Amino acid sequence: MSHSVEINVLGSWQASVGERPVVVPPGHQRALLSSLVVSAGQPVAADTLAGQVWGDQQPVNARGALSTYVTRLRGLLGKQVIVANPGGGYCLSVDEDKVDLHRFRRLLRQARGAGSAQAELALLREALDLWRGRPFTGVESDWLDMDVVPSLTEEWFTATERRIDLDLARGASQSSIAELSALTTQYPLRESLWLRLIDALQRTGRRADALGAYRQIRSVLRDELGVEPNAELQRLHQDLLRDTTVKRVTPLGASAAPSPHQLPHANMKFVGRRDDLAALDDLVATINFSATAGEPPTIVVAIDGAPGTGKTTLALHWAHRMAHRYPDAQLYLNLRGYSAEDPVRPAAAVQTMLRSLGVPVERVPAELDERSALLRSTLAGRRTLMLLDNVRDAAQVRALLPGTGALVIVTSRNQLRSLSIRDGAQRLSLQRLSHDDAVELLETAAGQERVAAEPQAAAQLAELCEGLPLALAIVAERTQRTETLSQVVQALTDEMSEPGSFRSGMGSELYAALSWSYRALDPPAAAMFRKLGLHPASDISTDAAAVIVDLPLTRAKQVLDQLHDAHMVEQLRPRRYELHDLIRLYAAEEASRTDSTDASLAAIRRVLDWYLHTAVSAESILQPRRRFDFVAPLTSTVPPIEFADQAGATAWFEQEFDCLRSVVIWAAAHGWGGHAWRIVIAMTTFMDRRIAWQEGAELLETALAAARAAEDRTGEGYAFNSLACQQIDQNELARAMSNLEQAIDCFIDTGHQAGETMALSNLGLVHAQAGEPERGLQFCTDGLALAEELGYQRGVANNLNNMAKAHIAMGNQEKAIDCYLRADRLFAEIGDIEPGSLNLLDLGRSYIATGQHTNAISALHRAAAGYSQLDNRRWQAIALYDLGHAIARTGHPGWARHCWRAALVVMRELADPRAAELEKLVGSHNSAASWVQN
């Protein structure tokens, strides 16, 4: 092995023998030596060397040419430097430390194994000092340009960013900012560098400059790639806007899972329950959360008791006391186990929890067991507090239980003995308040002076309410509007002695307290209370409450605040109100006794109309070119909410989804089937983007049943078509075909031609995918003719898109491209971004298949930009994935990697199977991962 030869390639090409510089001629001779340098110390086959030196343009006698170049290199470097292999090929025999490339990689390996941050930083600096610029400058080689230099550059990026992180950990400085500013200027598409620059600017108090830097990278990405900044950059931007100090708990570049803190506010006037709180504290007193104690078990505490005994109040109070021990996630869910509406099903409950934890809908499995396993995996290693309120039975919560390290608090009227037996739950049966605690509660609410002035009356009130906290809270509020406590005692006694009182199974003391408090309400508040009892779901927004009682929004908010002050409603979240299920029963009973049937039906009609037309309003923002003729003849009786953008429309659907599901189920079961199926059809775009397909399918099945019950064939057609669309996505082609055939029959029966062309187009797609492209083409042709007859441009474009897929299945890409181009012109003309972006994605793939890579890049760039505009990250990533392949085929691997990196971030989040391929394409996964481990 020659120790005197030194070769440097991390920058401009340099070679020397001893102290003497050696000039290796450029061209193939230098390319050959570079190939041997990359594999120094390892034999390289002649065929491999020939491919690396000449690519596809190899000479007739490649081995002879290699031998000639080797002879010349030996003359420059020494005869023993390049050794011939017995089986053919050559090996560069030099000390690896005399080649800066291998010295660089050795130092990086040592840095990854360093025992301290200081040692790691020193090794990184030594390695990075070897880097003089673009590797192999002065060597002409397509192989180096495409396969070696990008990978080496990525190693340098990873090491540089790690070194910057270690420097920033010691304190951001102006020198760090200057370096990062220079790097982002040189590499403007490297988001991880911008992330560090913005972070450093923020840390040094330069918030305005940090915001300016974010605007700059956002502009660059949108102009160059048609994409938005990655999720971590966007989170950092939001922190800047809130002017909060950024505190990283994960390595830079790694995604941090959301840390929800959902516990509703606790009652500041909580009194009593000292023995119960002590018992609860004892359950967790021995749990050790130290780093050396291992992962502690999950503790399940079940608090049971009669209605109105204060289970939720106690659970919330104790949960807030325990919250500091479970800082990673605090989750709350009302499972509605005893409300008038259907209880939350276990699968839906797990889905809600996963969404709260930031798990994308695409990753949520269909089966309950798989969902439960995903929830446990998501919570693994996180100290989590979970409050599950109003549970019917153990089966409702079992799938929600984390594996380790959590505190789960369950409240129920049921004693949940099976949860104790099978799952080790600790049980606390809550009794009514003691006499002393009941009087203390009155003191807290009514005032110590008043109770001290009338101790006997206070004692009588405690006895009349029988220690029931809900009744005491209602009565205590009423004392604020009464001169003496004795008057309250008399009024409550009279109420309880009224013959024939309907008590809804709640006990005379609570019924009397409710009745008395209700009668003290002014007419608008009493009317609001009764109407809330008619609402199909247990919780309601301020907007919906204003609609159901037919009041202006501001006035409705004032009335709701009066009911809240009187303890007739709860406000656990901003702008949303809930009724205790017993109070809701009482409100419904009062509505049936007080209001006429027509008045009650009008209130229900108003709120169902509002939900329907607000859903349509939101859907029209998500799909602005969709036809909404399915809504007829249900015209709006009240103004719906109007949304300014997609974010607002999506946020409304997110906030109202559980409520909308309850409304649909109630409407379908109570003779309002027309509203039920139309609300579901107005939600289809949101469900496709954000809701697991099984939940969506169940709602669509409800819509289908509602349409059938209402004998509405048009509704059946829409439900069949939407179910089929979901089944196409799941590749359930036989079921989709059957449903689409039924949809077409329904639309023909009712003369609904727009629906017919929609279903024909989808049926054509199914046949094309099922191996019957000729039949598929015929269905699309029929749908196209009908859409043209109607002047329905969106229908024409959709049919052209599906016709293209039939042509592809028949092996005719050119006809497919023609259909895609015609569809593209129509989508652009009507401004329909979402289907237009999908059409461009399909067009780009056809261009790739036919070798038209420049056209493919243009189409796929437009598709990615369209999905970016829609904030549809899943499909944007898919477009970038294909765009990277198209760019790579034009000989620009660096630009391709930019696309793949952006796609990889999203596909990792969504657990997309293409993520593994992308990691290989990016070429830096192993190196980057090893740095994160440090």
Give a summary of the structure in a few sentences.
With 934 residues, the chain is α/β, with parallel strands linked by helices. 62% of the residues lie in helices and 6% in strands.
Give an overview in words.
The protein has 42 helices and 13 strands. It has 934 residues and is an alpha/beta fold. The strands form four sheets. Strands 7-8-9-6-10 form a five-stranded parallel beta sheet, with helices on both faces. It has a three-stranded antiparallel beta sheet with strand order 1-2-3, with no helix packed on it. It is globular. The two termini are 36 Å apart. 62% of the residues lie in helices and 6% in strands. The model is unreliable at 244-256, 288-293, 499-506 and 924-934 (pLDDT under 50).
